[in-house]
Design a protein that fits this description.
mainly beta, 1 helix, 9 strands, 170 residues, disordered N terminus, 8-stranded antiparallel barrel, elongated, 53% strand
Length: 170
């Protein structure tokens, strides 16, 4: 069990390090006079609030692309996978969600597929900096699974009213 926790922790650290390396290696934001694109890769831990997985979280790895405009409205997409490591390491689910709202509070709504439950589910969540609270509705089992996630996603940066097109922001 300790080896599995160590492996999952190393995976999380590696994903966060990869995000930082990617941020330095390439420009991940494009700015114009009205909006900017904010692309992020992220890692996190997700706890099921119904108690089915105990206190052991799932590992979340994902990518998010957002369009942020000068009035702080945000829309885009989020794609992530969850990896379970309770009894053995296994791929749990994949989900794709629309992301919309303001820079401080984002809503997520989408669909996913669970290999653990062998079926399609709907997902919805509220997200702020470094956290997400949501739930998945499994169609085949007609069950609702709430979750709390801590992740490396911070709030998208504001777009200045007088922004200009430029090379990578500093």
């Amino acid at each position: 069990m300790k080896q599995k926790l160590l492996l999952a922790s190393l995976g999380l650290i590696g994903a966060i390090a990869a995000q930082d390396a990617l941020a330095y290696a390439v420009c991940n934001s494009t700015t114009s006079s009205a909006s900017r694109t904010d692309n992020r890769v992220y890692a996190g831990l997700s706890w099921e609030l119904n108690g089915s997985n105990g206190f052991i979280p799932d590992l979340v790895l994902g990518a998010r692309s957002l369009n942020v405009n000068s009035s702080n409205a945000v829309n885009g997409a989020d794609l992530n996978i969850r990896i379970r490591y309770k009894n053995d390491i296994s791929f749990d689910s994949v989900r794709l969600a629309y992301v919309g709202g303001s820079r401080d509070i984002l809503g997520n709504a989408g669909l996913g597929y669970s290999l653990t439950n062998n079926g399609v589910f709907a997902t919805a969540a509220a997200q702020s900096a470094y956290s997400r609270l949501g739930g998945d509705y499994q169609f085949g089992k007609e069950s609702f699974n709430p979750y709390l996630e801590g992740n490396s996603l911070y709030s998208p940066k504001a777009v200045p009213q007088n922004a200009t097109v430029g090379i990578c922001p500093g």
